């Protein structure tokens, strides 16, 4: 019997879908998941793919509760093997965050440890009302290995991040919304539809404009305000002369919806 891949990749309309596919193992993260994720990103980002955004979701009751412990136990005794395991995760999550495409996450059930690190690599997060979020590494004498200690403070602030990291406690979806960890909390049974509609909306936007705004918002955090403003000015000088802007202005003046080139 051939095992099914732990992550499936597909394209629905203009949305590239990454779906964690091991619900029996709480959609745990492994080297295989990371390799499949990077291969899918190659496909989604390729010229002519028609993909305008990426939706990260998971099968089953829970989104993801962290690393594949069997793989972690197998590699942790050898420094080179452990480093390779950590770097696979870092590579995939860095690639996801740096994608020119907006990345949307749809979270149900538990989103813990490595699952939280995956969500932190996304741009916009939808959560089912019953979802729960936490780091939980500290409870077991482990520390984050795929960016949690660095991305979490940048998203929710250092004091709240240190609370979650040190206490290993879980927070509910409403608290995650209040803290800025998620963008939208969905009523029960509406997560798939709501996140899918959001991705469909992104397909109507200027793809050049979305890519530029995502890049600026992320890159600006790594420098001073003055440096970020200069980056914005440089991008605006280029973007404002493009065809998409001509179409946007014409649509505004004509009181119609713009139709951007794909």
TrEMBL record:
Segment forming the signal sequence: none
Gene3D superfamilies, per database record: 2-enoyl-CoA Hydratase, Chain A, domain 1 (3.90.226.10)
Family annotation (Pfam families): ECH_1
Coiled coil (residue ranges): none
SUPFAM superfamilies per the UniProt record, alphabetical: ClpP/crotonase
Listed InterPro entries: ClpP/crotonase-like_dom_sf (IPR029045), Enoyl-CoA_hyd/isom_CS (IPR018376), Enoyl-CoA_hydra/iso (IPR001753)
Entry similarity comment: Belongs to the enoyl-CoA hydratase/isomerase family.
Record-given protein name: Enoyl-CoA hydratase-related protein
């Amino acid at each position: 019997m051939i095992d099914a891949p732990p992550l499936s990749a597909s394209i629905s309309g203009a949305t590239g879908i990454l779906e964690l596919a091991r619900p029996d193992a709480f959609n745990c993260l492994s080297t295989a998941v990371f390799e499949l994720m990077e291969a899918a990103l190659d496909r989604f980002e390729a010229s002519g793919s028609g993909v305008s955004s990426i939706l990260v979701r998971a099968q089953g009751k829970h989104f993801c509760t962290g690393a594949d412990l069997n793989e972690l136990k197998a590699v942790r005794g050898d420094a080179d093997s452990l480093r390779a395991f950590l770097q696979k995760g870092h590579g995939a999550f860095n690639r996801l965050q740096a994608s020119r495409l907006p990345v949307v996450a749809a979270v149900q059930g538990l989103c813990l440890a490595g699952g939280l690190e995956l969500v932190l690599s996304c741009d916009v997060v939808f959560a089912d009302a019953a979802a729960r979020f936490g780091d939980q590494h500290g409870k077991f004498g482990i520390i984050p290995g795929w960016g949690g200690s660095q991305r979490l403070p940048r998203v929710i602030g250092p004091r709240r991040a240190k609370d979650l990291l040190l206490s290993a406690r879980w927070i509910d979806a409403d608290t995650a919304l209040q803290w800025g960890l998620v963008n939208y909390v969905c009523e029960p049974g509406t997560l798939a539809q709501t996140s899918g509609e959001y991705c469909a909306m992104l397909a109507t936007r200027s793809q050049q404009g979305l890519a530029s705004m995502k890049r600026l918002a992320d890159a600006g955090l790594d420098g001073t305000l003055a440096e970020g403003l200069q980056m914005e000015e440089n991008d605006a000088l280029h973007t404002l002369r493009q065809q998409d802007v001509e179409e946007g202005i014409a649509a505004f003046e004509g009181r119609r919806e713009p139709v951007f080139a794909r």
